[in-house]
Design a protein that fits this description.
By secondary structure, the first copy, chain A, is α/β, with parallel strands linked by helices. In chain A, about 40% of the residues lie in helices and about 15% in strands. The first copy, chain A, has two domains: about 30-115, Leucine Dehydrogenase, chain A, domain 1 (Rossmann fold, 3-Layer(aba) Sandwich), CATH 3.40.50; about 140-270, Rossmann fold (3-Layer(aba) Sandwich).
Chain lengths: ~290, ~290
């Protein structure tokens, strides 16, 4: 069994990006600039955005954090999106989700210029991903692809089972794993809450991607000997023994599943750190105008 | 075994559309208008476009056929697309594919205003389909959904196996069959040229969708007793006994597979007629500005 060290891989990628940014700036190029809009004071969102700002620093990017209170109107938020769309210094930007209920997330996402949509949530980027065209791939699937790539994990002809059909993980990951490419060329099965014989299907997986957000859902009896297991779950399970008061818990019962795997990601330190790293990679692409010119 | 009669279903839907158009026009509304651009004289394309024009007539739509010779420049073609985008009388339009090699199909598709893209090939429509937002669903998948709906075929929790990963059939059909909706809520497996154990996987399918374009590929030993089989294949296999010189041949060996099925589509007369019908449904939606206002 080999542990897939997402933390170390992410650190390495950030170092590579920092080196490239240094070269760009030395050659008179522009330092990539990521802006983030944060609405309200949700604990999770605060943490994510803080980590994104820190990652920008590690990569040598310029970053701008724009804060709104919970009671910001949709109109004000859309006006800021419009401003960032037109700001030539901003290469890419994100609006941290979730948003307060009185604001339509979809409307905000669609208001972002797709050429600056480094989260890859705009329908144009989602559509181009599906078609197989260059685009901003959303962070979590992109992070998993990079782990497969960096660990040299064979994918062609393998059976990849994706647990979960969310728009930001399950569906794009399924699309990417079936594409004619490496990583890809997998036979892909997508399972979800309505799936029957879930255990049986999981046991046929060469590559199992757990993304339902159900802590410890995947048990040893659901995993084939030698499988590759990527765990996207990051549920905060209350735990008074932890300083934070919770324990970040994956969808996979790691202790019993790991011994059966050829490769497995831990939680934390697996897929998670790669997610912000993917955002950094997209920001670098945006800064270089590599995808949309 | 029940035969799914795509021809009769398509005729019924066209009659329903014609009735609705009659009402719209009687109430002072606008007759839906579909324009089609045809480049060159490819036999298949000529047939498809002719059938689309005939279907428009049957539905009471206005239709406009715009022809270019094979040597039309990409620039000229794009200028016509732009003209149709701006023509307020045209509700929707299509550019019949394939295009000559000197023209980028993707460039042409992306030049079409997505609000008039009744083929559903524009990245915005593809992306919205993936996200689960209202959009123009491409014709072949949409036709199959309608057959499942009209024949009241249960889909929730079923295992749907899709053979083929094309952008216009396999991928969107997989996405639609896994969505939280009816038809949908299937566990979905996508197989393709790199798939191992293809026969074995097919045998687990409650709903089998054959869309690889390999005549008679699916044999009786690949189909579970009671399965629903939808055959998208329409390969023209040379046959001197036919007046046309060819026989339209599906991906399914119908004679031996049909007895095992609960439902099956024949070729011709199954999925095929529904395809143009779906285009008509999208054109009606475009005429009513039902999706993008």
């Amino acid at each position: 069994m080999q542990l897939i060290d997402g933390k170390a891989t992410a650190a390495q990628i950030k170092a590579e990006i920092a080196e490239e940014v240094k070269q760009i700036v030395e050659n008179g190029g522009k330092r990539p600039h990521l802006a983030a809009i944060l609405v309200g004071h949700d604990g999770g969102s605060e943490t994510y955005v803080r980590n994104k700002v820190l990652a920008c620093e590690a990569c040598g990017f310029k970053s701008t954090l724009i804060r709104f209170e919970d009671n910001v109107s949709e109109e004000e938020l859309l006006a800021k999106v419009d401003e960032l769309n037109r700001d030539e210094d901003v290469d890419g930007f994100i609006v941290q989700l979730p948003l307060p209920r009185h604001i339509s997330e979809q409307k905000v996402i669609e208001a972002i210029d797709y050429r600056k949509d480094v989260d890859g949530f705009h329908p144009i980027n989602v559509g181009r991903l599906s078609i197989g065209l260059p685009c901003y791939i959303s962070a979590t699937p992109n992070g998993m692809l990079e782990l497969l790539r960096r660990y040299g994990i064979e994918t062609s002809g393998k059976h990849c089972v994706v647990l979960g059909r969310s728009n930001i993980v399950g569906k794009p990951m399924a699309t990417l794993m079936m594409q004619k490419a490496y990583p890809g060329d997998c036979t892909v099965t997508v399972c979800h809450s309505r799936t029957k014989n879930l255990k049986e299907i999981c046991r046929t997986a060469d590559i199992l991607i757990a993304a339902m957000g159900q802590p410890n859902f995947v048990t040893a009896d659901m995993v084939k000997e030698g499988a590759v297991v990527l765990d996207v779950g990051t549920t905060r399970v209350p735990n008074p023994a932890m300083k934070s008061g919770f324990k970040l818990t994956g969808d996979v019962k790691f202790d019993e599943v790991a011994p059966k795997c050829s490769f497995i990601t831990p939680v934390p330190g697996g897929v998670g750190p790669m997610t912000i790293c993917s955002l950094m990679r997209n920001t670098l692409l945006a800064g270089k105008k590599a995808i949309y010119g």
